[in-house]
Predict the structure.
Amino acid sequence: SAPGSGNCHTTDITISDCSNRAVLRSLAATPAEVEMHFGPGGEQLQLQPGQALTWTARGELLQVTPVEREGAQDDWEYYRYDARSQRVVKGSRRQTGSGTQTQRVVYLPGLELRTKSSGESLQTVVAGDVRLLHWESGKPEGLNNDGLRYSYDNLTGNCGLEVDENGCIISAEEYYPYGGTSLWTGRGETEADYKTVRYSGKEQDATGLYYYGYRYYQPWAGRWASADPAGAVDGLNLYRMCRNNPVTFRD
């Protein structure tokens, strides 16, 4: 998004001249250039300039490469799925000034297992809108082990408030209609960073994408990264979000 007049923001999108596919203008300056950014199955091949997307033959996002380096290891985030195309593993590698950092998340029914190369091992028990965080090792200083976090959503399912077992606010977040964060506050930066449920009640990956179960959503563009797997049941545009009315509808 780029600043517009007053408090408004605009996003420039280039739409294909032969389909409903579209990308940010930073990827394609003219309609004729849009189609080269999509695979034969309708999956987007670049997230931002220089950030490649890799897909499986079943239309599942396999890997995002947010940083490519010549003569050195790239940064990447990868995903693995079960037989129903539901995500069960997420992993990432990132180069920093102090070395290589890796993270891995395993998703089980009602349980998330999160590990980091720093030695942190976190088990998150999920029951509806309540999450319990239990550290096996590497607990950050100042956080309580086995602490409860209650999420409160608005009418379109966005998680705006997190409180602890005493009703004290952990973090508060407000969103622009298409999912960008307009306001974020928390009683502690480290504690607030462990919030994983956000826009539409979904998890936002390090890439900025939101995972919805069968597709990935780009909040900065207001569009999906792949076509609707259900076809044209929600209209002929297979990439638009909530019929272009996210204030009223939710996916």
User: Anything to note?
Assistant: The chain has a mean pLDDT of 94. The chain has two domains: 1-34, 38-244. The CA atoms of residues 196 and 203 lie 5 Å apart. The radius of gyration is 19 Å.
